[in-house]
Design a protein that fits this description.
Bound molecules: adenosine-5'-triphosphate
Protein name: Protein ABC transporter 1, mitochondrial
Shape: globular
Distance between the termini: 34 Å
Largest sheet: 7 strands, antiparallel
Strand content: 5-15%
Low-confidence stretches: 1-8, 10-41, 62-69, 87-151
Radius of gyration: 25 Å
Organism: Melia azedarach
Length: about 575
């Protein structure tokens, strides 16, 4: 019976895939207009490759990062802009390697080329002076200082807290609506196939006793399917991955444990664009002579985020910069990606009812559209740079306008460790950073009325050498009207003072409550508000270890979801 059910699900899944293809694909248009040849030779062929990739039949090219990381990926540009070299330090003056021109395969050279990049006029971002690098010599992270992108501290932190990390894969971003659709369709079919496999396994061997309650009930929630989902999102990138990342930070009461475990992968970063695709974006955005503005460009990304990947480069005037380069097609596919993820979530019953998924998706769409506009992000970043120019302990890197566009954002490279890693530093440092973060939050909201609303750990890079928090990623910055901010302050005061009625009144004015809630829901909301108000309830410091605020709120969250 269960096998029949699963077969039904498979048929449903495949018909959903077929229906979606018929509804949306350009393939249908091409057939209608009789352009069958183009259809077969281009999009369908590519799409089939994409689909097999997303289903998990092929796995792209695994990028091998040997240790220590070689820097063969750095390309140096001569003054004659169109010529690049990748010679290593002990190979200076040798013939220019034509194969190293962007867009072509590069022959790899030695680790030393990396040192040349480091040697190139290193500016200390926060002070504008030249800086030296203190080596990390012990495993005690509180002793470590690093001013070269936090690389050594990050490596030491990783060694201290070993994480199961996924090796990034080099895979083309599906950039047309059709190839993205095929990606989702492939994922849907892959999940349906995985469900069949799991059901068959259970029929033959029974359900494993180690499986948790939810995954024991649903053969969809197998480890393989969860992994399939995570890898597909890393390959799709864009809005699909962003939603995966949002889901990955939810509580187990919202998202089943095996899915959460697999989604851990999506937080570690996306797949990487192949060099030819990266060059296509750079040429289209900055013009084919973009190299003329740089001394060097590192083709190995320092980060592969959800909507773009980030590369180190050095400008002609010697500034070390981070170039954020947007994946092609993601800005135009936000709406369809969100729709497709929603179809998958509905189909798999992954998300519990009551999560206001439609509302959440609408907000995600608006946020993502803003985040894809790097000109808007550049403007936000400059505004923050100016507002915080006199603030002690914070630094916002400058924007390099002449190497930026709507899809490429170039900013001064800053150093530091992601803010969560500060948890491993000493108490004094933790107190300092905690106070600074709170000061920043309150200043942004109540003084600037302008806030960075994407509190990702890696958007706050703590530089121990200068005791500075370097702030990046202003794509999600937004302005709040004075009336909202004033009500918000009243809300904070009511929470801190434990005043029930004002908490409810302000919550309705701010839109946290509709006024239609029942008593149980209201009570859970008020309790949650009081817990959030605790750190503000007494003058002086607050010991965050004395209560587990997030856990307490999350416990109330389950009641709120039910009501
Ligand atoms: N100016 C910079 N200096 C140093 N590192 C940087 C800089 N800009 C970006 N990075 C690195 O690249 C990563 C991704 O950059 P950013 O957060 O701006 O991208 P994003 O697409 O907005 O990412 P997300 O998916 O987190 O929203 C950062 O976490 C950081 O590691």
């Amino acid at each position: 019976m269960s096998g029949l059910n699963q077969l039904g699900r498979l048929v449903n899944g495949l018909s959903l895939v077929a229906k979606e293809i018929a509804k949306r694909s350009q393939a249908v248009d091409a057939t209608r207009t009789g352009d069958l040849e183009t259809l077969i030779t281009s999009s369908l062929k590519k799409a089939l490759v994409s689909a097999t990739d997303t289903v998990g039949l092929t796995k792209g090219t695994v990028r091998e990062f040997s240790k220590p990381k070689p820097k063969e990926s750095v390309v140096y540009f001569n003054d004659s802009a169109d010529v690049a070299e990748t010679t290593s330090a002990d190979d200076k003056g040798s013939a220019i390697d034509q194969s190293a021109l962007p867009g072509r395969d590069v022959s790899h050279d030695s680790e030393k080329s990396a040192d040349r990049n480091v040697e190139a006029k290193v500016l200390e971002p926060s002070t504008g002076k030249e800086s030296s690098v203190k080596k990390c010599e012990s495993n005690n992270l509180s002793d470590k200082v690093d001013v070269d992108g936090g690389r050594e501290v990050a490596a030491a932190v990783a060694a201290a807290v070993p994480e199961k990390r996924r090796r990034p894969r080099e895979r083309k971003v599906p950039s047309t609506p059709f190839s993205r659709l095929i990606g989702f369709a492939g994922l849907g079919a892959g999940l349906a196939w995985g469900t069949i496999q799991e059901s068959t396994k259970r029929l033959v061997y029974g359900t494993s006793s180690s499986q948790d309650k939810q995954s024991a009930v649903s053969p969809f929630l197998s480890d393989k399917n969860a992994e399939r989902l995570a890898h597909a999102l890393c390959r799709m990138r864009g809005a699909a991955l962003k939603i995966g990342q949002m889901l990955s930070i939810q509580d187990e009461s919202l998202v089943p444990a095996p899915i959460l475990a697999a989604l851990d992968i999506v937080r570690q970063g996306a797949d990487v664009m192949p060099r030819w695709q990266l060059n296509q974006v750079l040429d289209a955005e900055l013009g084919p002579d973009w190299q003329s503005k740089l001394t060097s460009f590192d083709y190995e990304p320092m980060a592969a985020a959800s909507i773009g990947q980030v590369h180190r480069a050095v400008t002609k005037d010697g500034m070390q910069v981070a170039m954020k380069i947007q994946y092609p097609g993601v800005a135009d596919s936000i709406e369809s990606d969100i729709q497709n993820v929603k179809i998958l979530l509905d189909y798999t019953n992954l998300i519990p009812k009551g999560l206001y998924l439609d509302r959440a998706m609408k907000v995600a769409k608006e946020e993502l559209s803003r985040e894809c506009d790097y000109l808007l992000e550049a403007a936000n970043q400059k505004r923050f740079h100016d507002m915080l120019s006199d603030a002690k302990g914070f630094y916002v890197p400058v924007v390099v306008d002449n190497i930026s566009s709507k899809r490429v954002l170039t900013t001064e490279l800053v150093s530091g460790i992601p803010i969560d890693k500060v948890a491993q530093l000493n108490q004094e440092t933790r107190n300092y950073v905690g106070k600074k973060l709170l000061e920043l939050t309150l200043t942004e909201l109540f003084v600037f009325h302008f806030m960075q609303t994407d509190p990702n750990w890696s958007n706050f890079l703590y530089d121990e050498a200068t005791k500075t928090i370097n702030l990046i990623d202003f794509g999600a910055a937004r302005e709040f009207p004075k009336s909202f901010v004033d009500d918000y302050l009243r809300m904070v005061l009511a929470c801190a003072n434990g005043d029930r009625d004002p908490v409810i009144e302000m919550s309705q004015r701010l839109g946290f409550l509709t006024g239609m809630e029942n008593e149980i829901m209201l009570e859970a909301h008020v309790q949650a508000a009081f817990i959030v108000g605790l750190p503000f309830s007494k003058a002086g410091g607050y010991d965050f270890r004395s209560s587990n605020i997030t856990q307490s709120i999350s416990n109330l969250g389950a009641t709120m979801l039910r009501h």
